[in-house]
Amino acid sequence: QLQYTRIYRKYYDDVLILLKTGLRVSELCGLTKKDLDFEQHAISITHQLLKDKDGYYINEPKTKSGIRNVPMSDETEKAFQRVLKRKQKAKLKEVDGYRHFLFLSPNGYPMQESSYKFVLRNAVKKYNKEHDVALPNITPHTLRHTFCTRLAQKNMNPKNLQYIMGHSSITITLDLYAHASETGANKEMRSIIA
Known about the structure:
single chain; alpha+beta; two-stranded antiparallel sheet; 7 strands; globular
C-alpha cells in the first residue's frame, strides 16, 4: 500500500502543473529547462513531444495559437522548482535538437501521454477501492478542461483565456464558457429560490 502511495506521490507535481496551467499533456512532456522563465513567471510553449512506433519526435504545437507564454502561479513555480531538483538520469539525451526534458519516467525516458493516462487511471482505481464516493475517470485532458472551466467560472476575459489555452478559435473557448455559466446559473438560481 505504502509503495503505491510513493509511486503516485512522485507524479504530484506533474499533475498539479497540468491542473494549474491547462497545458496539453504533449506540451508538458516536451518542456525543457529553457522553457521556464521564473523572472517573467511564464512557461514558453513552442513545441510538443510526441511518440509513435518509430520513437520520440518534436512537433509544433497543435495549432499556430499553441505558441504562447503561459503564466505560472507561485504554487506552479514551486512545483517546477521541485521538478528541477529531481535527480533523474536521462536515457535519451536529445530529441530533434531538444535536451534536458523535465518529465522523465522511472526508466529515464521522456514521459508521454499514455504514461500519464496510466498513472491517473491507476491512481483513481486505488482511490476508489479505499473510498465510498468514487472518482470518475480522470485523464490529462480532464485536467486541462477543469483548468479552463475554473477560469471561465471566475469570468476571465474569454480572449485572454483563449490565448492561455492555445485555442485556435474563440468558439472552442466560448463553448467552455457556456458550460461553466450553465452550471453557475443553476447553482446561483437554486441558492436564490431556496
